[in-house]
Design goal:
Elements lengths: L9 H18 L2 E9 L2 E8 L7 H16 L5 E4 L1
Parallel strand pairs: 2-3
Antiparallel strand pairs: 1-2
Helix pairs in contact: 1-2
Length: 81
């Protein structure tokens, strides 16, 4: 069953976008959690292997941010905290 994205909050839509990349991140031993969305910025926490990985910035900007910004136009940036 398809969910009507109009009825979902920004946070729910950001989480749905993150869910698209979550399996790949998990395969590398990592996890990503949405902390908050504020003024067009989604703040995430990278955990597990991603927490200290030098490639986590590439994952954040190249995969997570690209999908979130494409799927949730209200978000212009994803920042790791």
């Amino acid at each position: 069953m398809m969910t009507d994205s109009v009825n979902l909050s920004i946070e729910e839509r950001v989480n749905a976008a993150i869910d698209k990349v979550r399996p790949g991140i998990a395969m590398d031993g990592g996890e990503v959690w949405l902390v908050k969305v504020e003024e067009g910025v989604a703040y995430v926490q990278m955990l597990g292997a991603c927490g200290g990985c030098p490639a986590s910035t590439m994952t954040l900007k190249g995969a997570i941010e690209a999908i979130v910004v494409a799927d949730v136009p209200e978000v212009r940036e994803v920042v790791q905290i």
